[in-house]
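I hope you will forgive my troubling you with a question about protein structure. The matter concerns a single protein, recorded as an amino acid sequence and a row of backbone structure tokens. Please examine both parts with care and let me know of anything in them that strikes you as inconsistent. Here, with my thanks, is the record as I have it:
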Amino acid sequence: MNTTALRLAAATLAALALAGAAACSDPSDEDLDLPTNDDIAALFTEWNDALATGNPETVAALYAPDAVLIPTVSNVVRTDHAGIVDYFTGFLPSRPSAVIEQSTINVLDADNAIDTGTYRFTLHQAQGPETVDARFTFVYQRRDDQWLIVNHHSSEMPEP
């Protein structure tokens, strides 16, 4: 198994472990400062607004240094800051914007949350606007009081 596949598997297992730990935690141990679903939903809005800047560094700054990005319109898994910047350098010229169609937010604990669902991208191509329907998973982690994306998987819907 190559290094990228191992990192992806590790990130996925970590997200699943966090979900399992949250499900088994004692409610008396829960932090009173849990983020709300609206707090987590706002992280998507921040990401979408960053896309609108057209600046790959602005978007990449929302990802943790060790984040994993499995992007919608690339076959290459990105596992570091430079790779994430590279992806958005190629993606942002189409002036993408996304609208969430369906979302399920799971707040795991005070510092971890997952937002999973579907969204519709509008891409502005030379021949006119194009829409792409995709599934997404954002795994967020609060680090040093800042919410960062630690895992982002987006894939085009397989059925029309």
User: Anything to note?
Assistant: The longest helix spans residues 3-24. The chain has four helices and five strands. Residues 1-14, 21-29 have pLDDT under 50 and may be disordered. The longest strand covers residues 128-143.
